[in-house]
């Protein structure tokens, strides 16, 4: 399988404040979250999924997302996004000042029911309502996360044409709206060759001026960095990661943390792929995040003596 040249620059979306923090059961003090987010910004992070606008009953850890957005409202250089599960969440996010909305639809019917208690068709109906809302807003944009794009904890391996079916239906609803599409390895079971095949097939069918590609991976099977590298060699220009490898999908049994941002930055640096993130400062942020009570971390680079890292 031929590898394309990677882009000279890749956006890293830091997802520890959402995907990472939501995996911690006991609510974290808002001031601790603010401190960790500031450390990530100090390290050079410019894109961040700061939280989600969901019911506090569903995910109590995300109850203070609005406060976090307000605390960093003056950071014009930052691109903050937030996950929204429905129209109400989108309205709250936009009212708080968030301009980048993230909507998740799982390719697998079983996982979509477990994750948002809706069928895929019902999720796509909700997506249509979000698109109508975004089209009325200035400078608002949408990212579509396609969960279980490679594997489902209930249904097993997901073929690229299953992803194509959901994506095609979603694109029909989005019209002229610019869309960032993320293929999500929700369980962390994808292999680099599967990632390459999915991107190769889907980019060929859907590439266009109003579409960009992202990859969201977990490191459950130790493939996180390799999968991300294969993704950027086959069309992705954005990769998600969580500092310290914090996280794990609560609706995907056995899925451990996200790919550690510091591991990914180290790999990118070795290939002269620019991310704009300062690795020593990022490791300081990783130490602070790893020290939070109740978190599950999975960083490789944090285990290496610091004088050997750079």
UniProtKB/TrEMBL annotation:
<comment type="similarity">
    <text>Belongs to the HMG-CoA lyase family.</text>
</comment>
<dbReference type="GO" id="GO:0006552">
    <property type="term" value="P:L-leucine catabolic process"/>
</dbReference>
<protein>
    <submittedName>
        <fullName>Hydroxymethylglutaryl-CoA lyase</fullName>
    </submittedName>
</protein>
<dbReference type="Pfam" id="PF00682">
    <property type="entry name" value="HMGL-like"/>
</dbReference>
<keyword id="KW-0456">Lyase</keyword>
<dbReference type="InterPro" id="IPR013785">
    <property type="entry name" value="Aldolase_TIM"/>
</dbReference>
<dbReference type="GO" id="GO:0046951">
    <property type="term" value="P:ketone body biosynthetic process"/>
</dbReference>
<dbReference type="InterPro" id="IPR000891">
    <property type="entry name" value="PYR_CT"/>
</dbReference>
<dbReference type="InterPro" id="IPR043594">
    <property type="entry name" value="HMGL"/>
</dbReference>
<keyword id="KW-0479">Metal-binding</keyword>
<dbReference type="GO" id="GO:0004419">
    <property type="term" value="F:hydroxymethylglutaryl-CoA lyase activity"/>
</dbReference>
<feature type="domain" description="Pyruvate carboxyltransferase">
    <location>
        <begin position="10"/>
        <end position="283"/>
    </location>
</feature>
<dbReference type="GO" id="GO:0046872">
    <property type="term" value="F:metal ion binding"/>
</dbReference>
């Amino acid at each position: 399988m031929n590898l394309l040249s990677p882009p000279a620059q890749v956006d890293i979306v830091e997802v520890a404040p959402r995907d990472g923090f939501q995996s911690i059961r006991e609510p974290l003090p808002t001031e601790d979250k603010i401190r960790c987010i500031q450390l990530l910004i100090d390290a050079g992070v410019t894109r961040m999924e700061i939280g989600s606008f969901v019911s506090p009953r569903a995910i109590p850890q995300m109850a203070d997302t609005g406060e976090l957005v307000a605390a960093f409202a003056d950071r014009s250089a930052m691109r903050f996004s937030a996950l929204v599960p429905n129209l109400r969440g989108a309205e709250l996010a936009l009212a708080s000042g968030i301009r980048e909305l993230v909507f998740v639809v799982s390719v697998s019917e079983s996982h979509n029911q477990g994750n948002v208690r809706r069928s895929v068709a019902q999720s796509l109906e909700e997506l249509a309502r979000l698109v109508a809302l975004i089209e009325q807003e200035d400078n608002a944009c949408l990212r579509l996360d396609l969960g279980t794009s490679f594997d489902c904890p209930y249904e097993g391996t997901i073929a690229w044409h299953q992803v194509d079916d959901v994506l095609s239906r979603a694109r029909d609803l989005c019209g002229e709206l610019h869309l960032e599409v993320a293929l999500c390895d929700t369980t962390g079971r994808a292999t680099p060759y599967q990632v390459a095949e999915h991107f190769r097939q889907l980019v060929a069918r859907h590439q266009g001026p109003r579409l960009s590609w992202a990859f969201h991976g977990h490191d459950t099977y130790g493939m996180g960095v390799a999968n991300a590298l294969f993704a950027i060699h086959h069309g992705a220009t954005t990769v998600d990661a969580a500092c310290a490898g914090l996280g794990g999908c609560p609706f995907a049994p056995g899925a451990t943390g996200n790919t550690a941002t510091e591991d990914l930055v180290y790999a990118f640096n070795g290939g002269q792929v620019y991310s704009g993130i300062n690795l020593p400062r990022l490791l300081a942020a990783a130490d602070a995040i790893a020290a939070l009570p109740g978190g599950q971390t999975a960083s490789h680079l944090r285990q290496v003596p610091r004088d050997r890292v750079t």
